[in-house]
């Protein structure tokens, strides 16, 4: 075997590899003498083996990328691909490490919306700590909070629109739509870093929270100097000092202004009166 290998290296040779791989190209030239020739040859063979292993890793990564691309990035892409029925689907945004399930709204305002919050019966308690809001809670077939990590993967790398649908206890249905919306990552406190122009019928009650980090009972990122808004208002939210809207507040199963601003409310919709239904959704512009 060594004889055959030496025979190969009796000629000038170059091993070419994919330009994206970060390893050395081996080039050899024959020698007529020298006691270290076999040592040099062994070293070059070792480098070749290393290059082969690197190529294999690149191939594995490319295969992984092709598997990853099998999933649509969001509900808008699902709709574009021809699925127009609202329901639960699997998505994987470009920078998400793994796929996850989402609820898609294919009917409202052109469809293609990905829910990140759905409330309509009070089955879920939203008085929760940071990790719950980070990873999500509830049931996609019932009430839920998708999770701030997932919301960041959906909105953090491309600007989305935000749609909020509300219904009060007099069965009045309204909506608020913002033409740009983006949430940062955990290191940024899941800051609402972009909130665009409002349109709709609900009235504008979210801009007070634009630019704010998310606050929970165990992670105080608000601007209220006298305490923690999440403790005082009984839920996590993008508090300022403290609220202009509060869609994660207490769910009261009747028309009431009890508990004032701890309830689920939208300030321009009957002030502090609690809301019956609140849905928050995003889709790429």
Automatic annotation (TrEMBL):
<feature type="domain" description="Fibrinogen C-terminal">
    <location>
        <begin position="66"/>
        <end position="285"/>
    </location>
</feature>
<keyword id="KW-0732">Signal</keyword>
<feature type="coiled-coil region">
    <location>
        <begin position="31"/>
        <end position="58"/>
    </location>
</feature>
<feature type="signal peptide">
    <location>
        <begin position="1"/>
        <end position="22"/>
    </location>
</feature>
<dbReference type="InterPro" id="IPR036056">
    <property type="entry name" value="Fibrinogen-like_C"/>
</dbReference>
<keyword id="KW-0175">Coiled coil</keyword>
<dbReference type="Pfam" id="PF00147">
    <property type="entry name" value="Fibrinogen_C"/>
</dbReference>
<dbReference type="InterPro" id="IPR002181">
    <property type="entry name" value="Fibrinogen_a/b/g_C_dom"/>
</dbReference>
<dbReference type="InterPro" id="IPR050373">
    <property type="entry name" value="Fibrinogen_C-term_domain"/>
</dbReference>
<dbReference type="InterPro" id="IPR014716">
    <property type="entry name" value="Fibrinogen_a/b/g_C_1"/>
</dbReference>
<protein>
    <recommendedName>
        <fullName>Fibrinogen C-terminal domain-containing protein</fullName>
    </recommendedName>
</protein>
<dbReference type="GO" id="GO:0005615">
    <property type="term" value="C:extracellular space"/>
</dbReference>
């Amino acid at each position: 075997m060594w004889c055959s290998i030496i025979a190969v290296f009796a000629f000038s040779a170059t091993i070419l590899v994919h330009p994206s791989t970060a390893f050395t190209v081996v080039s050899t030239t024959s020698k007529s003498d020298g006691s270290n020739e076999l040592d040099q040859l062994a070293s070059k063979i070792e480098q070749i083996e290393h290059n082969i292993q690197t190529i294999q890793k690149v191939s594995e990564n490319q295969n992984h990328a092709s598997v990853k691309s099998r999933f649509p990035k969001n509900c808008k892409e699902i709709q574009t691909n021809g699925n127009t029925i609202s329901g639960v689907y699997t998505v994987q945004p470009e920078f998400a490490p793994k796929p996850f399930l989402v609820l898609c709204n294919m009917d409202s305002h052109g469809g293609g919306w990905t829910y990140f919050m759905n409330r309509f019966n009070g089955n879920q308690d939203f008085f929760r700590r940071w990790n719950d809001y980070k990873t999500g809670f509830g049931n996609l077939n019932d009430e839920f909070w998708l999770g701030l990590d997932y919301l960041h993967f959906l909105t953090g790398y491309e600007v989305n629109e935000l749609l909020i649908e509300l219904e009060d206890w007099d069965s009045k249905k309204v909506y608020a739509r913002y033409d740009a919306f983006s949430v940062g990552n955990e290191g940024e406190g899941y800051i609402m870093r972009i909130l665009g122009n409002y349109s709709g019928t609900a009235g504008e009650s979210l801009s007070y929270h634009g630019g704010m980090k998310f606050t929970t009972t165990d992670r105080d990122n608000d601007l209220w100097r006298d305490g923690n808004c999440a403790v005082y208002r009984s839920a996590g939210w993008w508090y300022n000092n403290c609220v202009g809207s509060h869609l994660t507040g207490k769910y009261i199963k009747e028309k009431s202004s009890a508990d004032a601003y701890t309830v689920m409310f939208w300030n321009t919709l009957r002030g502090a009166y609690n809301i019956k239904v609140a849905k928050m959704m995003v889709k790429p512009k």
